[in-house]
Write a structure and sequence with these properties.
This is Superoxide dismutase. The protein is mainly alpha-helical and 204 residues long. The chain folds into 2 domains: 67 residues, Helix Hairpins; 112 residues, Iron/manganese superoxide dismutase, C-terminal domain (minor pseudopilin epsh fold), CATH 3.55.40. The chain contains 8 helices and 3 strands; from the N terminus they run αααααβββααα. A hairpin with a 2-residue loop joins strand 1 and strand 2. It is globular. The chain binds manganese (II) ion. Manganese (II) ion binds next to helix 1.
């Protein structure tokens, strides 16, 4: 089956005023769509690969034909990362707070929720050029990391728990060069219930 752009779990204007409607619309319907379209175009030559989901493909890049490896890395990564990203956001009034298990794990790994937030923010700010900041799980331990372009922690065997897109296309219309303002606004729309779900699944 061809890869498909997933619907957003909320309308384009749902994350206002933190993430503006126009950015969400272009980000989802143009940028994410382009990753899906390019991925499908690249896989046309190898229809047998269409039976694999995108996370399998980006985890097994070295098993793929050499001529499509970077295409899958970039566009498969883009498709996977964005599909994940939409789900870890929600309208601010539903954002909530880390609870129970998630809060305990965060405090255990980083000392406190605020120290975690600072460290994640620093990773997102420090990512030079385009990329992502992540909270991931590896061997039962939470870590903060950043990746370049559309590289996914999944490719390195780590499970994403929370992710933030810091490509300029994610914030330039509203925040221009002020990535720090985008990041601090974004904390208002994190879907903590979904993050908790990601952690429980990963710990199983
Ligand atoms: Mn993006």
């Amino acid at each position: 089956m061809e890869h498909k752009l997933p619907d957003l779990p909320y309308p384009y204007n749902a994350l206002e005023p933190y993430i503006d409607t126009r950015t969400m619309e272009i980000h989802h319907s143009k940028h994410h769509q382009a990753y899906v379209t390019n991925l499908n175009a690249g896989l046309k030559k190898y229809p047998k690969l269409l039976k694999f989901d995108v996370d399998y493909l980006i985890t097994n890049i070295l098993k793929l034909p050499t001529d499509i490896r970077s295409l899958v890395r970039n566009n498969g990564g883009g498709h996977s990362n964005h599909s994940f990203f939409w789900d870890v956001m929600t309208p601010a009034k539903k954002s909530g707070k880390p609870q129970a298990k998630l809060l305990k794990e965060i405090e255990g790994s980083f000392g406190s929720f605020n120290l975690f937030k600072d460290k994640f923010t620093a990773a997102a700010l420090g990512r030079f050029g385009s990329g992502w900041a992540w909270l991931t799980l590896e061997n039962g331990n939470l870590t903060i990391e950043d990746t370049q372009n559309q590289d996914s922690p999944i490719s390195k065997g780590r499970v994403p728990i929370l992710g933030l897109d810091v490509w300029e296309h994610a914030y330039y219309l509203k925040y221009q060069n002020k990535r720090a303002d985008y990041i601090s606004a974004w904390w208002n729309v994190v879907n903590w219930a979904e993050v908790e779900k990601n952690l429980s699944k990963a710990l199983k």
